[in-house]
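Re: export button greyed out
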Amino acid sequence: MRLALPVRHTALGERGIIVAFMPTVNSHALDALAQGVLLGEVRAIARAITLVESREPARVEILARLFPHTGHAFKLGITGAPGAGKSTLTYQLIPRLKAKGYRVGVLAVDPTSPFSGGAILGDRIRFDDVLEGVYIRSLASRGSIGGLSRGVPPAVRVLEAAGYDLILIETVGAGQLQVDVRFVADTVVLTLVPEAGDVIQAMKAGIIEIADIYVINKADREGATRMRLDLRNALELGGKPKGWNPPITLTEAIHGKGVDELVEFIEEHKQYQQQSGGWHQRRLQQLEWELQSLIHDTLEQQARSVTQQLFSRETLESVLHGAENPFPKLQVWMQTRQ
Ligand SMILES: Nc1nc2c(ncn2[C@@H]2O[C@H](COP(=O)(O)OP(=O)(O)O)[C@@H](O)[C@H]2O)c(=O)[nH]1
Ligand SMILES: [Mg+2]
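Workaround output, generated via the alternate export path:
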């Protein structure tokens, strides 16, 4: 079935990402789109994700239709600095997670290609066998709050509605920004590399405490064991945690080494969370963040138009020349809103 969504035109957006501008989508087309997603049609999934990533009001309408079929997937966040091996690790995790019976979807919030030539060619397994039945999508990292794409939670819902029950989310973390990945993922895997430098510095920057599982990838290089010791000591500085004690595991993603153990830790953390009630707490936070970012988006658009209404081009000119004070006007506007 082909969907007749009125896509007006497409343009090459920032970083060469194709952006579709959609005028108001009618309710019939949205029903058809939702139906296509529920049937797992790849084209419908792609369109629905483009829609929910956009700022069209219709994105909330499609989410309303899909909602009853969402909320069941396990969301696995893979974060870490660019080049740490997240994509290679993701590629290695996929067949193992499939073997456990999961239907896997991948969302990559990465300005670079999610599966670089290096990551694929460095591997023996044929591309098609591994990725068969896996839906992979890159999301723009622009329009983000704290470095995390607002497109992630609604894109997760689209994939859930389409029947995917494990969503891998690859995000480039940089410093404090990684903190937010908890708002979209049930389990966070932080990928480090031996040459990442001083563990203590990273701890101080607040980069490191957020993970549920630590991976020291590129363990074929020098310093991995040393780094594990440093990291273990650093994590235990504040005493042993009462609940989950985050494991630190070594991998060589390009050779697939250590990945089976990583999968076991992932399953363990999932079970631990379900039993301890941590899962529920985290999902409450995720839901709040999802709704907050949708509201934030709308208010941001309103802020732009209110600013234009209050301050015309001429007003701005005279403010700039000192002929007018903008703040009394703003004060009045704020008072009328209270
Ligand atoms: N030596 C070594 N290189 C690796 C390993 N894992 C990944 N790489 C390489 O590191 C580079 C970056 O990997 P990629 O998965 O694209 O990193 P990402 O930016 O974190 O997604 C690629 O050239 C990989 O082949 C590993 O275990 N050992
Ligand atoms: Mg990558």
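Residues 1-21, 116-126 have pLDDT under 50 and may be disordered. The button fix ships in the next patch.
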